[in-house]
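Hey L., structure's done. Input below.
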Amino acid sequence: MDKKRNIQSIMMTDKYDEVEHLWDQIYVTGLHQLTNLFEEPSKAISLSYSEFQLLAAIDIQQGVSLHELAARRQISRSRLSQLMGALLRQQLVEQHVAATDRRIRIFTLTETGRQSLAQLQTTYHHIFAELQLACGPTQLAEMLKTLQQIQNYVAEAQLLRKAED
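Output:
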């Protein structure tokens, strides 16, 4: 109840209106543009950024199961299945049956998947270097820390909403 009361008191301040307006401006311009900056290179080879991240996760541990990927990427198994389906259709990954348990599917990158991943990693390393030059390493680290805090808050809020339903 205290949290609810604190939120209401914050919302009634003039400063809140300024911050909310600033948030709208930042989201519409900055975060949207940042999202596009990372989506565009992968779209050029018919991938989403999420699919690129999955390719990278599979590359780290060749021979990874859906369960391990879902835990590592912190996404639902249904969303992961959709993403993996797209990667399979594009022949960027292949699936095998686990030797220890035939119910478990193991995923590895194909040669095309490795080439696509290498191309995108080079592009993303370049983007990160440009951001670091533009913002400076300290400011970029602070921005990433803030975005991580927002991500953690959103994930926690979603879990609480699910628990309340």
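The two ends are 18 Å apart (CA to CA). The mean pLDDT is 83.

-- N.
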